[in-house]
Design brief:
558 residues, alpha+beta, Formiminotransferase-cyclodeaminase, Chain B, domain 1, Alpha-Beta Plaits, 3 domains, 17 helices, 51% helix
Length: 558
């Protein structure tokens, strides 16, 4: 899975585009980072910049932006409707894919330490990165705002986590932390009634509604022993919601923030709103996503809805997303374009990887006088074809009439082989990238003894990695082989030939990748990792041949 980190810093400037562009400029200059949105607010005098990319690059971009904001924004002159405590008021890091909360917290700590040390800005850590329970909540840290920190920062309880313990009059203070991805979503209702929309929101949101003695909204509240209103919790955790009427659309919506997708997913929220709306004689007509969302939000929804339909979930990513779009009604208000709304797609190379090319274009590139892509990429492609055929046979078996009791079994195989297919398509491109790294290493200068030693080390590291990639291709192909054997033995008999072809493709993948492992290691006999890599390569060939022989014997019996 590609490692993606999002960052959404809030800067205390929303009226001068030149200043915002000056802050964004260093972000744009950093490779592997892309600005996804810049939202300026005049009345709040605040701009929210959203950018994402590889974690380390995002952290560097965040530092450069915070530095630039400290240079260009003078908090002594700032007024605005939104609470704030510094030029960079808050800078959350948000894991999107391939990076854990724990890893993101370490990055937040590194960023905070560097901001405090190099820029002289007091830094507080919040949410998952908080150093004390009192600092988990952003509003608690920010209480008193910029002006209040002239005294608050000298309170021992509010000593900054990093940086100087003195008030920074120009830049103020900043808060850095890690939070979950927040999905802002509106569910469309076939009503103009804000009261009904609010009723649905109160049914669903975590905070629920105030309990009354007569059970009606306008009744007398039930109070606890402290005199506080007793609340009836809603159906969902980590969910905030309210009802409103959108004049532009001509109907009411339940507007919702999902603050922890691991607790409440988009499809769970949708189902809860549908349930509540139905009980009130309403219908959910569609869904509106505000901003961007992670790809997994829709692929998880697609799997859920397929399962509800009694269908195999082992289909491709595009099909899962298509199912989610149609079931959720994401295009009711305006067309929903995945390339514009899914973070991972927004970060893709505009020229596209080899795996996204047409067959014609890929084979044309293969037939050129360039050494890459070459046999390594073709081996990975053979493996991806094997996994695809296996998933196809599993899906056809899952949908076979009279085999309904085996749905979960075949669906599970389809799911697993789809994952293998995705891994091999990534390796298809990584093989070419690994070759490029070897070529770059050979191109390093070698005039001085130091340069020669650095060049030698770089060549060794790049060559070992270039051998590890086809070995991973072999591992993936071998992982697929038992599933192919199962499909030959137990799959839909009308598709047994497809399973047989999958077996041939898997063996071509495994044996072809072995050639690449061996050729990359032929001049690396003295490297300490070579015996282990070669040993694993030979083991995979032997084990893979055994399964391939079984597949061939069964196919010839047919």
């Amino acid at each position: 899975m590609k490692r993606i980190l999002e960052c959404v810093p809030n800067f205390s400037e929303g009226r001068d585009p030149k200043i915002i562009e000056a802050i964004c400029a260093p972000i744009r200059e950093i490779e592997e980072v892309r600005i996804l949105d810049v939202d300026m607010g005049k009345s709040t005098h605040r701009t929210v910049v959203t950018f994402a990319g590889s974690p380390e690059a995002v952290v560097e971009a965040a530092f450069q932006a915070i530095a630039r904001a400290g240079q260009w924004i003078d908090m002594r002159k700032h007024t605005g409707a939104h609470p704030r405590m510094g030029a960079t008021d808050v800078c959350p890091l948000i894991p999107v894919s391939g990076i854990s909360i724990e890893e993101a917290v370490l990055l937040a700590q590194q960023l905070g330490e560097r901001v405090g040390r190099e820029l002289g800005i007091p830094v507080y850590l919040y949410e998952y990165a908080a150093t004390t329970p009192e600092r988990k909540n952003l509003a608690t840290i920010r209480a008193g705002e910029y002006e209040g920190f002239s005294k608050k920062i000298y309170d021992p309880a509010w000593k900054p986590d990093y940086g100087p313990t003195e008030y920074n009059a120009q830049s103020g203070q900043t808060v850095i932390g890690v939070r979950d991805f927040l999905v802002a979503v509106n569910f469309n209702l076939n009503t103009t009634s804000v009261r009904l929309a609010n009723s649905v929101a109160f049914d669903v949101r975590e905070n629920g509604r105030v309990k009354t003695h007569n059970g009606k909204p306008n009744g007398t509240p039930v109070l606890d022993e402290n005199g506080q209103p007793v609340r009836i919790p809603g159906m969902l955790k980590a969910c905030k919601g309210v009802g409103w009427f959108i004049e532009e659309y001509g109907f009411a919506q339940v507007s919702m923030n999902l603050t922890q997708l691991s607790i409440t997913s988009l499809h769970q929220a949708f189902e809860a709103v549908v349930k509540s709306a139905t009980q009130r004689g309403l219908r959910v007509t569609g869904t509106e996503i505000v901003g961007l969302l992670p790809k997994s939000t829709l692929t998880d929804a697609g799997r859920y809805f397929l399962k509800q339909q009694g269908r195999s979930t082992g289909v491709g990513e595009a099909e899962l997303i298509r199912i989610a779009i149609h079931t959720l009604g994401l295009s009711e208000i305006r067309p929903f374009h995945p390339k514009e709304k899914i973070i991972e797609y927004c970060l893709e190379d505009p020229h596209g990887p080899l795996a996204s090319q047409t067959v014609v274009r890929f084979t044309e590139g293969l037939a050129s006088d360039s050494p890459a892509p070459g046999g390594g990429s073709v081996s990975a492609l053979c493996g991806a074809l094997a996994a695809s055929l296996t998933a196809m046979v599993a899906n056809l078996s899952a949908g076979k009439r009279g085999w309904e009791d085996q749905l979960d079994y075949f669906s599970s195989i389809a799911d697993k082989t789809q994952q293998i297919r995705e891994e091999l398509l990534w390796l298809l491109d990584e093989d070419t990238r690994a070759f490029d790294q070897v070529m770059l290493a050979f191109g390093l200068p070698k005039q001085t003894p130091e340069e020669k030693e650095l060049r030698k080390k770089a060549i060794e590291e790049a060559t070992i990695y270039a051998a590890q990639i086809p070995l991973r291709v072999m591992e993936s192909a071998y992982t697929c082989m038992p599933f192919i054997l199962e499909m030959v033995e137990k799959g839909n008999p009308n598709s047994v030939s497809d399973a047989g072809v999958a077996g041939l493709c898997a063996w071509a993948c495994l044996s072809g990748a072995a050639y690449n492992v061996q050729i990359n290691l032929k001049d690396m006999k003295d490297h300490p990792q070579t015996p282990e890599l070669m040993g694993r390569c030979k083991q995979l060939l032997v084990s893979g041949k055994e399964i391939t022989t079984k597949i061939e014997m069964l196919m010839h019996q047919e």
